[in-house]
Write a structure and sequence with these properties.
4-stranded mixed β-sheet; alpha+beta; 6-stranded mixed β-sheet; 183 residues; 10 strands
Length: 183
């Protein structure tokens, strides 16, 4: 009995000291996502499902895997904030399974844009400091206006229409990571 008690106490101590959650970077910076939103159109909602998300390693030792991620958008802003490690990062890479964006065209019509099965590389260097806040902004200010100009109200498969795919993916290629002010 006397040997069982110290052994049990040691095991409980080891369990209490383990990492709080695999893949969680406690106390480190956070990253949200946002759809670039020009004045002429408004993002109603959307979703991006990434099978894999990686932060580029500036030293080229190895990228930082963040696993699969889903961003759900209320308007242009994502609801989720993911924790990222404090370090200098040289880009964000997403293996996208599905991206769906619903846009109000400003004239009473909505367009649902659906793109699937593509990779997105955002080549941007940023220094993520402890407790910093960052936002992955999809597209630039003209991105959704350019896409809406090519469509009628309704649902559109981006992958199936050449001119639409060109405007959509060229706009996404202008995505950036923005540093936000501390809260």
């Amino acid at each position: 009995m006397r040997t069982l008690l110290p052994t049990t106490a040691a095991l409980l101590g080891l369990l209490a000291c383990r990492d709080p959650a695999a893949g969680t970077f406690v106390g480190n910076p956070t990253m949200t996502a946002r759809m670039a939103e020009p004045a002429e159109v408004g993002v109603v909602d959307g979703e991006l499902i990434a099978l894999e998300m990686l932060l580029g390693d500036c030293d080229q030792v190895g990228d930082v895997p963040l696993g699969s991620r889903t961003f759900t958008f209320d308007g242009a802003e994502s609801r989720e904030a993911l924790q990222i490690p404090a370090d200098e990062h040289c880009g964000v890479f997403l293996v996208v399974d599905l991206m769906r964006v619903v846009v109000d065209d400003g004239q009473g019509g909505e367009r649902e844009l659906i793109a699937d099965d593509f990779d997105l590389w955002v080549p941007t260097t940023f220094l993520a400091r402890a407790n910093g806040r960052f936002r992955l902004r999809f597209g630039d200010d003209a991105w959704l206006s350019d896409v809406v100009a090519l469509t009628e109200p309704g649902t559109h498969s981006v992958n199936g229409e050449a001119s639409l795919a060109t405007a959509f993916f060229e706009g996404l290629d202008r995505s950036v990571v923005e540093e936000l002010a501390p809260e």
